Amino acid sequence: MIRRPGFPVPEDFTAPSHAPLVAARLGRWLGVAFGLCFVTGLLSHYLQHPPGWFTWPTRPVNLYRLTQGTHVLSGVAAIPLLLAKLWSVYPRLFVRPPVRQPIRLCAHALERTSVLILVCAAFFELVTGLFNVAQSYPWGFFFPAAHYAVAWLAVGGLLLHVAVKLPIARVALSPPSRREKTVEAAATARDDRDASGRRAFLRTSAGVAGIAVLGTAGVTVPWLRRVSPLAWRSASGPQGIPINRTAAAARIAVPQDWRLEILWPGGRETLSLAELAALPQRTANLPIACVEGWSAAARWTGVPVVELLRWAGAPTGRPVRISSLETIGRYATSTLPAAHAGDPLTLLALRINGEELSPDHGYPCRLIAPSRPGVLQTKWVTRLEVPR
Hints:
- Pfam families: Oxidored_molyb.
- InterPro entries: Mopterin_OxRdtase_euk, OxRdtase_Mopterin-bd_dom, OxRdtase_Mopterin-bd_sf.
- This is Molybdopterin-dependent oxidoreductase.
- Keywords: Membrane, Transmembrane, Transmembrane helix.
- This protein has about 400 residues and is α+β, with helices and mostly antiparallel strands.
- It has 2 domains: about 10-225, Fumarate Reductase Cytochrome B subunit (Up-down Bundle), CATH 1.20.950; about 240-385, Sulfite Oxidase, Chain A, domain 2.
- Helices cover about 45% and strands about 15% of the residues.
- The chain contains 9 helices and 10 strands.
- The protein has helices spanning about 20-50, 65-90, 100-135, 145-175, 180-185, 190-215, 275-280, 305-310, 340; strands at about 260-265, 265-270, 280-290, 295-305, 320-325, 335, 345-350, 355, 365-370, 380-385.
- It has a 5-stranded mixed beta sheet with strand order 2-1-10-5-6. Strands 3, 4, 7, 8 and 9 form a 5-stranded antiparallel beta sheet that branches.
- A hairpin with a 2-residue loop joins strand 7 and strand 8.
- The protein is elongated, with a radius of gyration of 27 Å.
- It starts with 19 loop residues before the first helix and ends with a strand.
- The model has no long low-confidence stretch (mean pLDDT about 90).
């Protein structure tokens, strides 16, 4: 290789942490983390913005809690793994492009393009994701839409990068041949040092990723809350359950003559809070699972939506549009799919853990449905509407 004075080449970096085997193993771990994060994030996006073909089951009731917790925690694990991977491969930045060999030059450009797309998209996803769990948005774009779009860029860059690097990774991860073992035997001491250094770096990277996950997993795994000092939500909050948006922030003023309105093609019914409370009630243990990854279970008591529709004489087996007293914002209304609207555990809740709902939890009544994002569990409900 021709080198220019003062310019390093990859061979100048001899630390074991820069070995191809280290980069290949970190890449495999990072691929698993990115894959989990992408698939579970895609599910969450489709739940909030469902295309016509998408359906989501109501059972098990903790399904969304599991998938969204996996989404956030795999993203947390990916941060130290990505940094370790970049450290292991950064000497490759000093490879000179083979300008006199067009085919190799094209391959080199393809590799660099895949790396640029992947790294930029990955950092965007991880950094904005961290801001999202902190509910801080110091930018002008709508986070869910941007996060979704860039996720596809990250996956495209990852697949392109894997296609380019697969032959190298396959060689690095394969066991050494008999000839390679003979060569290695001649330099046993150096090889032992390198192998020890590689193992130490990989163990440190895996350990840091594990500590990051353990330190934050309490947001979604209740029995880990005591050992998760970095968890951004806990069991604290009004009536023992965290909230994202208070009644004051939503500018909620419940009118003294509040009545729940039920609309359907050709019919209308209204109920006061006392009349709603007089209907047969059901109690269910259901989680609030938010897109930021935190979740908490509570005991909810209220009227099953399907029974309320039957009482009013409205048709069932259809989606139901839920409207809130909160008239501003993207989530002032939500649409309950037919499967959830017909599930007897989908409640118009009046009580939480045996207490009347506080204003911050949605007084006078709120929606609580199994296996749904918390952002779609509409609070301060004022209307149910069954479309044609």
